[in-house]
Amino acid sequence: MNGPQVHCGWHGLGRERLPLSPLKSPWVLIRIRWHRLPCAQRPSTMVGYLIGEQEGGYIAILLVREHNRISDEFYWRRPARYSRPRLVPQSDVLHVFVEEPYSPFVVDLARRALQTDTKGVRELLPNRRPSTTFELAVGNLNYTCSVSRFADGRVAELFLQNHKAGSQADANARDSAVTASLALQFGCSLETLRGAMLRNTDGSASTLLGVALDLIDAGGTK
Fold it and tell me: Residue 109: inside a domain, yes or no?
């Protein structure tokens, strides 16, 4: 089994399959240190796909997200300038995506969170971590939720997906889970998140994320 398909070459005309990563969360945002490039051409961060681990760091393939105006689709491109896998120190891994960042908005959100001057410090999870999965139904649609926790038992991240991959409901579910995971890793408690959710007159959650958080809380995880 192979990893995601990417475009390669100077103009992105070639295509290749990346190797399947042994890491649970291989998609990361990496600090770039290219001292030979002019400042205007020196990006501060790039998305990386981790294909292995070494002592003190990871082996990463750098990728850029581009838009095909004809097909109106986004795709990953492996630039010729950064075509070789690189050894990335752990200190240069600035953000770990809970899943492949399909939307440029998710990447921009991660970059802005890093640039924001806040008192909170994001708690990163190890690439290998246990998780629990359960099913739920909201609005006559079926979803799957997976939850991972910090070592002290606090909820650290959640994945949400609809039974129909690629649908609008699936995209909304994934984005809401990414947003909630970022909040949890920056110190927001599960109780605070639940309190911010829309509620019906009977107190039940009105949205998918609210229902998922309530079910997680009912399981005794704080």
Answer: no
Confidence tier at 7 by pLDDT (50, 70, 90):
low
- How many structural domains is the chain composed of? 2
Q: Which of 102, 120, 148 is the last residue of a domain?
A: 102
Could you tell me if residue 108 is inside a domain?
no
- The domain containing residue 28 runs over which residues? 5-102
For the stretch 54-85, pLDDT in tens is 888 899 998 887 777 777 777 788 877 777 88
What is this structure's pTM? 0.50
Give the residue, 27 or 70, on which the prediction is more confident. 27
- The whole-angstrom separation of Cα 179 and Cα 158 is 10
Residues 96, 150 within the same domain: no
Sheet holding 155-162, edge to edge: 131-138, 141-149, 155-162
